[in-house]
Amino acid sequence: MWENRWLGDGSLKRKFSRLFSISYCREAKLRQAEGWNNNVEWFWRRSLFDSEKQMEQELVRMLGTKSITEGKEDKWVWKVSDVAEFIVQSTYRVLRSDGQEEGVAMYEDFWRIKAKPSAYITTLRVLENKITSK
Amino acid sequence: MESSICSMCGEGKEITSHLFCTCQVAWLVWSKCYEWMGLASLVYREPKIHFSQFRLIQESEVVNQIWLSVWIAIIGELWKHRKKKSSETDT
């Protein structure tokens, strides 16, 4: 539950690093985490400070947004493509755009434009912030 | 890019976003274009955003491609101008 990226933008370990550091069960499985709010002592090495209590609430809230499907095996999902399966083309798109979705559209425009080669190259450098002054 | 003082305006730090977006000299050129396009003169800090905003929504893709080639040409000219300016200050 902590290590993998399954909820929100990154791993819970990163988002709630403080809580993770005092978690008893760093290898907790999601199933264990479910319904754990009745059983807080089980989870933390020490009692929480006020600021950590807020984090805890946020974590509970986030966990509450997902539910577990019983009887199905876990699987990895490739989030970049629409079909949730790994396809090479989606990887290529991510690499070319540096992971930014709007970047893809921008370069699609860019490749179609006709311009003087020297200006074209300068522009590429400007857009990628790779211009050298010497 | 080294962050020395911009050789076009003599103010701001010479970084990409300054040279091609926020520099006053560059800005004179861009605002002319915006006037020409009939757009409000906004100052974009980030070249990528600047590039993606340099278009007319009501116009077709073909027309916008022409505007984008104008954008590219201006970047090329600004860079040429900047190189000329910096060699002048060196000698």
Question: Could you explain how this protein is built, in words?
Answer:
The complex is a heterodimer of chains A (134) and B (91). In chain A, helix 5 (88-97) crosses helix 6 (101-112). Chain A has 134 residues and is an all-alpha fold. Chain A has 7 helices and no strands. Chain A has 2 domains: 12-64, no CATH class; 75-134, no CATH class. The termini of chain A are far apart. Chain B has 91 residues and is mostly helical. Chain B has one domain (16-90). Helix content of chain B is 64%, strand content 0%. Chain B has 4 helices and no strands. In chain B, helix 1 (16-22) packs across helix 2 (24-37). The longest helix of chain B is centred in the C-terminal third of the chain and has 30 residues, at 61-90. Chain B is elongated. The mean pLDDT of chain B is 87. Classes of the chains: A mainly alpha (134), B mainly alpha (91). Chain A binds chain B through residues 102-103, 105-106, 109-110, 112-116, 118-120, 122-123, 126-127, 129, 131-134, and chain B through 1-2, 4, 14, 16-17, 19-20, 47-48, 51-52, 64-65, 68-69, 71-73, 75-77, 79, 86.
